[in-house]
Design brief:
The complex is a heterodimer of chains A (about 850) and B (about 475). Chain A has about 850 residues and is of the alpha+beta class. Chain A folds into four domains: about 180 residues, no CATH class; about 45 residues, no CATH class; about 220 residues, no CATH class; about 250 residues, Fumarate Reductase Cytochrome B subunit, CATH 1.20.950. Chain A has 31 helices and 20 strands. In chain A, strand 12 and strand 13 form a beta hairpin. In chain A, helix 21 runs antiparallel to helix 22, helix 23 runs parallel beside helix 30 and helix 28 runs antiparallel to helix 30. Chain B is globular, with a radius of gyration of 27 Å. Chain B has about 475 residues and is of the alpha+beta class. Classes of the chains: A alpha+beta (about 850), B alpha+beta (about 475).
Chain lengths: ~850, ~475
Amino acid sequence: MRNIFIIFIMTTLSALAQTMHPTFPLLDANGDNVLHTGQPVSTMNTCGDCHDTEYISNHSYHSDVGFSQLTEPGETTSGRAWDMSPGLYGRWNPMVYRVLSPPGDEHVDLTTEGWIQIFGARHVGGGPASKDRITETVEMNCFLCHIKEPNNDARIAALRSSQFAWANTATLAGIGVVERAGPVFRYNPAAFDPDGHIKSVYLKPHDPSNDNCGQCHGLVHADRNTPLITSTCEPEYWMTETTGQIISPQRMSDSGLNLANKNDLSRSWDIHAERVLKCTDCHFSINNPIFYQESEKTRPSHLTFSPRRQTISDYLYRPSHQFARGTSSYKNLIPELQGSMRRCESCHDSKKTHDWLPYRARHMQAMTCESCHIPHMYAPARRVMDWTMITPDGEPRMECRGFDGEPKDIRTLITGYEPVLLPRQELDGSTRLSPFNMVTFWYWTCGEPKRPVRFADLQRAIVPTGDYHPDILAAFDADKDGALSRFEMSLDSDAKIEIITSRLRALGLDFLKIKGEIQPYGIHHNVTHGDWVTRDCESCHHRHSKLTRTFTLAEHPPKAELPKIVGDAAIQRSGSIFIEGGVLLFKENVRQAGLYILGHDSVLAVQIIGAASVLVVMLGIILHAGMRFLSAGKSRAERGAKKTVYMYAFYERFWHWLQAIAIIGLIFTGLIIHAPSVFGFISFPAAVIIHNVLAFILLVNAFLAVFYHFTSGEIRQFLPEPRGFFSQAVQQATYYLRGIFKGEKHPFEKNPEVKLNPLQKLTYLVILNILLPLQIITGVLIWGAQHVPDFLDEIGGLGVLVPIHSLVAWFFAAFLMMHIYLTTTGYTPLASIKAMIVGWEDIESHGAAEGHN
Amino acid sequence: MNFRNTWITLFILIVLVLLVPIIYFLPKENNNNDPWAYVPKRLPHTDHSSLMTETYESGQAVTKKCRECHEESAHQIMQSSHWTWESPPVQLVGRPEPVVLGKKNALNNFCIGIQSNWPACTACHAGYGWTDASYDFSIEENVDCLVCHDRSGQYVKIQGGLPAPDVDLLTAAKSVGEPTRENCGGCHFKGGGGNAVKHGDLDGSLYYPSERIDVHMGKHNFSCTDCHQSEQHQMKGRAISVSMDDENQVYCTDCHDAQLHDDERLNNHVASVACQTCHIPVAAVKEATKMHWDWSAAGQDLPEDPHEYLKIKGRFIYEKDITPDYFWYDGTAQHYIMGDKIDADKVTMINEPNGDIKNVSATIWPFKIHTAKQIYDTRYKYLLQPKTYGEGGYWTEFDWDQAIRLGSEATGLAYSGNYNFTSTAMFWPLTHMVSPTENALQCIDCHTKEGKARMNWEALGYEGDPMVVGGRKRIEL
């Protein structure tokens, strides 16, 4: 700090010392320096001087993309008759539409060469591009990921024009190393040192940055200050197109997008990008010794860390280019790598940060972290790509979600969308809710075996001259403006379908059918934290839960069979797809997904039986009380002499009232938990906590009371005497039904030795031996859901326990009403209640009958 | 029958058994300290319009009237640096004797110093009539109450700190109240001879700032004195341009918890990073501030522009939206004291902040650095203090030799007759113009390999980016 100017010099020096990679010559296919031969660069030879490039290209799904998994058409799990692999090479991608034709297919759409021309834009080379049925190969392109400014546009242009051998060289264009010169590329001698090595100022290989990955995978915007811009319905990047995921540390409020409530969006697009993580920190090379962790299955249990691993130099010689990954939306994509990635819980300790969340373990078991931590997608994403009808430019009818207004209009307000939570199939066989976008595709199939109608055939049928065929325009153009809007394009009538069908049939195509399919795309990036996360219990635990909100699949679906979820989508099929008001909707059914969500779900039968029991008791009480009131004149006359006795000891009164208030409190909070939309007096989490605390108090109180009754011998109060019990019960019942109205004496005197009449004994027998234990057991198990989730699942889960618990709660409520009513049948209506408060009760003396009955 | 009232005990017992565990288990509100607790709640100020009714001939006459009720106030002001323009003696490291320093005798790299230039500079003195070295600092009537308490908005001071002739003293006297932004800003926003010149974080945009410029004043409508609180007219606050100690300083933590971030990772930064570093991402948010002043270019007949060139002052560079420079800083600084020897080939630090990576009490702070080329004695090797203002001063005569001779007469600093210009730098810690939370720095502003990081970690003493190589605790303390 002595001299502030030193600082500037040091900045420059440290920038220079960033890479350790030595300089190297660029070699051609024969291993000769391209500076002398002028031939295309062979990455396999150039990088192969030091690294085992053959090993690398053989250990890279980025290169293989399903080539090694090729099967006969229709043998994959996707359910499509023309799919040949689970990867990019062989699995039809309706987003791009073009299809790799199996060898010997009648109507060829794409040969391998055609596939490279189109899909090469998102393929790193090698794999099928170097092996499958082609003459000129594309080697795996090291530069695309390992230099700072690869020229991907030039590479793609070279592929499009079938200059396969030059494609990797083209990646170096624009940084002074090589420039296009007519059909070939010419090297710049100034970029090479006297040894023929390329100077490090021109080319410094580095670890892949987010920008490198973003070229194919999604919109990456590493600069936090330059405003991020992307078009409304045409995001150019795969992950951004399918889901709206954007990898950027930039605050949304600083972006260049016309976002709704933008000023308040002070969160970054992606917290991990904000926290300086790179893609490769989670998606690391699986033999990278820095990241390598032995699986718990193979690691001896006495070790927490095994230091034996590859040395750095071994790794640099043979770095596996299989990258750790999570579970894919495509179930069978590279199964051996699924789940190899660090997931949230590998780095984050949810226990430390979720102490506020009741039933934390249960929540983590039922849903992925993303469910709450990606509550909203702020960028638009695809909703529909409908290839049953195309534009003159060859685009399908498209719908996007997440904005309000015309696509491509700068004034369009971008609202984003709330992802749909679907039960994702985890590797261990369980399912957890996780956020998805669902994109629906429609397309024509033809022939036997089925194939999608080739793009060229579509063009010939619909836009034969580069514009719509006049018949089509006449039938589709409802407003007669000479052009087809997105709505007019939809094949929503039989007439429209017939025209297209006949024009396709005219091309010799048969078995024409419109097929619809839905591809769920998982959302795992754009995670957020703090106040941006779903924390409000009632967003799920509510009748209008976000879990079962309808999710719009298409606003203008064509008139065809309802689309189905793609066969190899790694989700459990639950919920329903239906049309309402012309709009195609999806609605999740959490019960089908094996979840019972308190506050959202209920069992109708339980409600009916429970409510009926309460209603019957209420009616009974009203009837009985009314008749007592009417016959009130007689009763006092025949009443026996009053005497006051010490009926309830202090402890008896204490446990009774404690239990009474606990039960009322439990019923009350239980109602809130059960139906927060109806009884939301206190917040859902507070109700849960109070419910649990009261239940615990009730349990302890019940236990102590049992102990008291046994040790004091008071338990005899509850034990019916076997002899004559039945007739005594009938006697008591007869009294309630008849005698009480005539003012007769109670058949059995209530006194400190015998406080309960036979009917009461019977009732308590049932309550204390059946209902209370049942309620305690189901309650404890529901509470225990967070501790023994697997055991719970075995006995049926919350879906069984909760309905039982709420049915018994109804019964308790009914009992409570009856109980309170019957206390008024004492010497005076309030005598019994008063006795339970002060201990002393006025009772009617039965004279000789006093004492044991 | 004695137990008839046991039911009350029963009732209390049951309530306790139920409520205590429920209250214990219910989630607690976040009990972070309330930042508003520290902010003073002011009573309405007494309306003085019926109390101040006489015609006042001078500022002193107003002060005399004030003192009838506020007997102690003038005396209190006279203990404060607003009046003395100097500090009590402070023992600085490496100096044989305690040093007395203040605006009265300090050198800076703007207008250089006040000695011999009194009338112009003392327009901002909280007193009346300071025009030369012989000023008597013990006359209570000379305390200027109005400069801080006038609320009429028309009270303006001119040379020697006297009210301008057209000021209506009666109106001013009737209007008095708590100091407003205008009272403080009248001098502090104009340090260095004009709006926004000196600080980079104090300028006229703070009279009515938006939230983006200053969250405290723009969003929460703070006045200066909400943070710069005073007791007996001793204002809180220090600046290393003149202050040598770190006593009676204003801190963010006066109101805010140091560990208030939700994120532990951010809280861990607090040990090594000042709040200001992240929460003042840019300085001179709205108005450009002076970054460089080249006195050696003065005196030429060139086109004039107050932000680029003035014949009397030389050439300037102004910048707005500046990215601060970052240094370790423990709240104190090395001070250039008049007469200190310099190495004219190097940049002379006027007030280099104290602190380095090994100093536990130092944190990384944002600074505006103002550089200058200013005059020095080539033989005696120290900075000189020219007379610029007034008769014979450089601004009228454009004669450096004469200006220095006159200046040296005032300072008593010998002048050899040989002068030249040398580079100096002055450090301005940035602490005002705090941004809203949403605009605070993000990780990649400092921790990035791609693009330009704000911190130069090696220069700060780290082995590399502490995110990767570890913080200073891991290096050695």
